[in-house]
């Protein structure tokens, strides 16, 4: 190995050599570009400063917290607060306005519907479905058939206090278990089921004794469901003459309901959701199908 | 072997140039002449437009800003004098970009790199920065001498002053940029009193940095190393395009004035070029135009001015370096007549394309509606059975009112004769048709319910929503489907 003090220039590349020569092979002197080197040093300095300022190193049961005390959780909270702050004008208006006032104000109504949709997804969708289409035993909120009433006030009451819920002010009253509790005989239940199907124009099987069924209905069911089976929203008794069936329209399902009773539960949301959220939920659900959604 | 002389590398010869050459500092000399004057005028006009355009007002009424050109990002609107563009009409920008590209191609087909030499921001700002440099530090020779000597306090003072002015120009460049995105007079006063948003200062900072670096330091390297256009331009040019050309048929063989005069008298070959190197001295990219067309040459025309000045001084005709074509140089050598063809298939094609794109854009702009309607069917549930057995579909419609005043629209259906249409939260007119009111320059989203009482066999039927502006009778419509079990 030779070390040559004189600067040699490689003829082909025009680059100076380091002066080192191994078996006549020379090393070109191509140092790192200075901007690269300084960027590299700056990143090292940055990394050290970062480790001091921010949470960086995992410890056995904790981690270094960093001099600035920054936490990702705080950042999320700050963002949420900023969002709340940004919406505070509209939120304050919502809180101060009645349901009818909000509905008359297109801008406020659009805001309430958007908020309501989000709240619906968080709280109501598990039972009623993402689009409020319901399921067996869970009412479809898009249609015009309302167990407890579809006006703004009625919907708000139902959301706030629920039905057959833990709230004293919730809707109560349920379908008794006529069969299980021995109020009706098996045959009477079958007759009543046939009669109920006929009320909404559904076909009844051969040999259905509608006269007997009407008698059973008048004696046992009409008290809640009405003489013509039109239902009673004060008691949550469904309209039996329409085309909408919460649990199903086939005879077996109706017999099952008559035998074991029905009583789906809507929880009380008072205390779990704030007043404004209940308000926007009411407006959203109402816009789906309440009051025929007019 | 320690002190043995290094052997010559295999295959290397004296002709081998290094593969890498460091940048040579360029000191362009001041020059006067026709093209320099054109460049000053273009510089004044282009920079004047850039710096002052945001201050031009354009009255649009109470519900819109009065700035002639405004990119309103917060409200997602773009205002250009009498045109207002919504985000969904951003294809107009695409059209403008297509037009810009075709204009560039056409300029190139007619006279080479006109864009590079006169109009490109890099050229214009670099030119301005050179002017400042010359004004403060003196012309080429003075600057070269000072840069070689030791730094003295007066020289340092000049340098500080130069960079200060450069930074002020750069800062103003960034400052003018942000004015296109907000009301200019308001933003100026906010900036001056440090009440403007951080984003405004950030962008000013970014553009100050880029202007200062690109025009003060990078200069011709932007054109030769960073810009793709020289490469594309070389592929698009043809033998008819006018380019800044050294007429070597007239200039060569070059020689001193006296020597070549003697040679000419003797009837020997002698050119007009006196090899004074003025064309190289004035060149902002440091090329020698006499070597022919080259990638580094931005065709700014300054060498033509320099050469014309010299030719006038020595009493020879101007135009030794001039806008010319390679083909004509060759033609003169071979004694053929010169050909100048600006109108040729290539230019006609570019001009034709520009006309088509321009007409399409003007046509669509003239015929665009001030009303826009879109509709989205509820996905969940697709349909709802009501208590009387009828079927209802929910839709979300969005109405855009591009007028600058509030409008009322009636919504009706086309396609389902027995269906009823309801707008949730909407009013009804005298005939019982739903009415939607949309504020000036706004969109409104509403829920619409369509109920069909008839029982139908098909599970999907086409229907059409028709929106009618009650004030003007303009309509917009859009189609969707009615879903049933």
How would you spell out the order of helices and strands of chain A? Answer: EEEHHHHHHHHHH
Largest sheet of chain B: 5 strands, antiparallel
Uncertain residue segments of chain B: 1-11
Number of helices of chain A: 10
Q: What's the β-strand tally of chain B? A: 15
Largest sheet of chain A: 3 strands, antiparallel
**Proportion in helices of chain B:** 40-55%
Describe the structure.
The complex is a heterodimer of chains A (294) and B (485). By secondary structure, chain A is mainly alpha-helical. Chain A is built from 10 helices and 3 strands; from the N terminus they run βββαααααααααα. In chain A, a hairpin with a 2-residue loop joins strand 2 and strand 3. Helices cover 42% and strands 18% of the residues of chain B. Chain B is built from 16 helices and 15 strands. In chain B, the strands form 4 sheets. In chain B, strands 6, 7, 8, 10 and 13 form a 5-stranded antiparallel beta sheet that branches. Chain B has a 5-stranded antiparallel beta sheet with strand order 11-12-9-14-15, with no helix packed on it. In chain B, helix 4 packs antiparallel against helix 6. Chain B starts with 33 loop residues before the first helix and ends with a strand. At the A-B interface, helix 4 and helix 10 of A face strand 7 and strand 13 of B.
Short description:
The complex is a heterodimer of chains A (294) and B (485). With 294 residues, chain A is mainly alpha-helical.
How are the secondary structure elements laid out?
The complex is a heterodimer of chains A (294) and B (485).
Chain A (H helix, E strand, L loop, with lengths): L1 E2 L13 E6 L2 E4 L5 H20 L18 H25 L2 H6 L1 H18 L1 H4 L23 H10 L24 H14 L10 H16 L25 H10 L14 H15 L5
Antiparallel strand pairs in A: 1-2, 2-3
Helix pairs in contact in A: 4-10, 6-10, 7-8, 7-9
Chain B lengths: L33 H19 L16 E4 L4 E4 L2 E3 L5 H21 L2 H6 L1 H17 L2 H9 L4 H27 L4 H9 L5 H21 L1 H7 L2 H8 L6 E4 L1 H4 L5 H9 L12 H4 L20 H12 L7 E4 L1 H8 L11 H23 L3 E7 L6 E2 L5 E11 L5 E8 L4 E5 L3 E2 L5 E5 L3 E11 L7 E10 L5 E9 L2
Antiparallel strand pairs in B: 1-2, 2-3, 4-5, 6-8, 7-8, 8-13, 9-12, 9-14, 10-13, 11-12, 14-15
Helix pairs in contact in B: 1-4, 2-16, 4-6, 4-8, 6-8
């Amino acid at each position: 190995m030779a070390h040559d003090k004189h600067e040699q220039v490689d003829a082909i590349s025009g680059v100076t050599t380091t002066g080192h020569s191994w078996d006549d092979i020379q090393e070109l002197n191509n140092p790192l570009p200075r901007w690269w080197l300084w960027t590299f040093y700056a990143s090292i300095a940055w990394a050290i400063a970062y480790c001091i300022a921010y949470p960086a190193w995992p410890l056995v049961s904790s981690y270094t917290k960093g001099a600035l005390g920054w936490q990702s959780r705080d950042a999320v909270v700050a963002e949420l607060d900023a969002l709340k702050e940004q919406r505070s004008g509209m939120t304050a208006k919502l809180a101060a306005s009645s349901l009818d006032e909000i509905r008359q104000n297109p801008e406020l109504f659009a805001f309430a519907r958007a908020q309501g949709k989000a709240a619906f997804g968080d709280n109501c969708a598990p039972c009623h479905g993402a689009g409020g289409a319901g399921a067996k035993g869970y009412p479809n909120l898009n249609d015009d058939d309302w167990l407890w009433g579809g006006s703004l006030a009625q919907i708000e009451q139902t959301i706030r206090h629920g039905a057959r819920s833990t709230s004293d002010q919730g809707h109560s009253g349920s379908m008794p278990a006529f069969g299980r509790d021995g109020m009706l005989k098996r045959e009477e239940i079958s007759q009543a089921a046939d009669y109920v199907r006929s009320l909404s124009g559904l076909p009844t099987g051969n040999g259905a004794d509608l006269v007997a069924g009407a008698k059973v209905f008048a004696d046992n069911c009409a008290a809640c469901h009405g003489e013509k089976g039109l239902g009673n929203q004060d008691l949550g008794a469904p309209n039996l003459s329409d085309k909408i069936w919460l649990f199903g329209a086939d005879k077996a399902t109706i017999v099952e309901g008559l035998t074991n009773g029905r009583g789906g539960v809507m929880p009380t949301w008072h205390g779990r959701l704030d007043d404004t959220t209940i308000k926007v939920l009411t407006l959203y659900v109402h816009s789906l199908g309440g009051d025929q959604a007019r | 072997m320690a002190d043995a002389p290094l052997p010559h590398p295999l295959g290397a010869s004296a002709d081998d140039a290094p593969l890498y050459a460091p940048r040579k500092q360029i000191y362009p000399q001041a020059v006067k002449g026709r093209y320099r004057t054109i460049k000053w005028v273009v510089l004044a006009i282009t920079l004047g437009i850039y710096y002052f355009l945001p201050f031009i007002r354009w009255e649009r009424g109470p519900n819109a800003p009065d700035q002639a050109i405004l990119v309103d990002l917060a409200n997602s609107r773009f205002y250009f004098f009498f045109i207002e563009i919504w985000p969904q009409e951003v294809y107009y920008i695409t059209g403008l970009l297509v037009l810009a590209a075709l204009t560039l191609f056409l300029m190139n087909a007619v006279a080479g790199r006109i864009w590079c030499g006169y109009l490109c921001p890099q050229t214009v700002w670099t030119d301005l920065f050179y002017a400042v440099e010359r004004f403060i530090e003196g012309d080429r020779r003075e600057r070269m001498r000072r840069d070689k000597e030791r730094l003295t306090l007066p020289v340092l003072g000049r340098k500080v002053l130069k960079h200060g002015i450069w930074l002020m120009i750069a800062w103003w460049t960034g400052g003018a940029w942000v004015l296109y995105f907000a009301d200019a007079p308001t933003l100026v006063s906010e900036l001056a009193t440090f009440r403007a948003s951080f984003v405004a200062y950030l962008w000013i900072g970014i553009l100050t940095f880029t202007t200062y670096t690109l025009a003060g330091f990078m200069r011709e390297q932007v054109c030769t190393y960073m810009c793709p256009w020289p490469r594309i331009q070389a592929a698009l040019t043809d033998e008819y395009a006018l380019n800044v050309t050294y007429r070597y048929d007239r200039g060569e063989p070059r020689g001193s004035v006296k020597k070549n005069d003697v040679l000419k008298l003797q009837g020997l070959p002698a050119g007009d070029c006196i090899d004074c190197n003025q064309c190289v001295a004035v060149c902002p990219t440091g090329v020698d135009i006499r070597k022919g067309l080259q990638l580094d040459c931005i065709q700014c025309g300054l060498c033509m001015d320099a050469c014309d000045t010299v030719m006038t001084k020595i009493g020879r005709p101007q135009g030794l370096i001039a806008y010319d074509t390679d083909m004509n140089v060759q033609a003169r050598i071979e004694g053929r007549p010169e050909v100048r063809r600006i109108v040729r298939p290539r230019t006609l094609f570019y001009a034709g394309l520009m006309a088509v794109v321009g007409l399409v854009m003007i046509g669509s702009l003239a015929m665009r509606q001030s009303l826009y309607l879109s509709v989205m069917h509820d996905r969940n549930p697709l349909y709802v059975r009501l208590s009387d057995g009828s079927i209802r579909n929910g839709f979300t419609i969005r109405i855009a009112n591009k007028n600058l005043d509030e409008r009322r629209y009636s919504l009706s259906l086309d396609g389902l004769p027995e269906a009823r249409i309801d707008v949730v939260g909407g009013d009804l007119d005298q005939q019982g048709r739903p009415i939607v009111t949309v504020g000036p320059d706004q969109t409104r989203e509403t829920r619409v319910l369509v109920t069909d009482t008839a029982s139908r066999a098909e599970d999907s039927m086409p229907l059409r929503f028709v929106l009618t502006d009650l004030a003007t009778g303009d309509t917009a419509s859009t189609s969707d489907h009615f879903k049933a079990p």
